[in-house]
Design a protein that fits this description.
With 69 residues, the chain is of the alpha+beta class. It has one domain (1-69). It contains 2 helices and 3 strands. It has a 3-stranded antiparallel sheet. The protein binds zinc ion (ZN). Residues 38, 40, 42, 58-59, 61-62 line the site of zinc ion. Zinc ion (ZN) is lined by residues 38, 40, 42, 58-59, 61-62. This is AraC family transcriptional regulator.
Amino acid sequence: MNKKWTIEEIRDYVKKNSDSVLLSTEYVGYSQKLLFKCSCGNNFEKTFTKFKGSNQKKCPNCQEARPSR
Ligand SMILES: [Zn+2]
């Protein structure tokens, strides 16, 4: 049961849970890539699912490089 997010809820979530800002003004579905602005000034694209679930709340530059294996 997936919650249906609205763009307002997502913007709010991003504001409260990260240092990034949501730039996208439309949300169609969970597979859609959204545009974020990182606190460093970089823009980056990510699906909200990844942003929220995979703890990827920063741009690739700021995202701590974690060895994948
Ligand atoms: Zn950044």
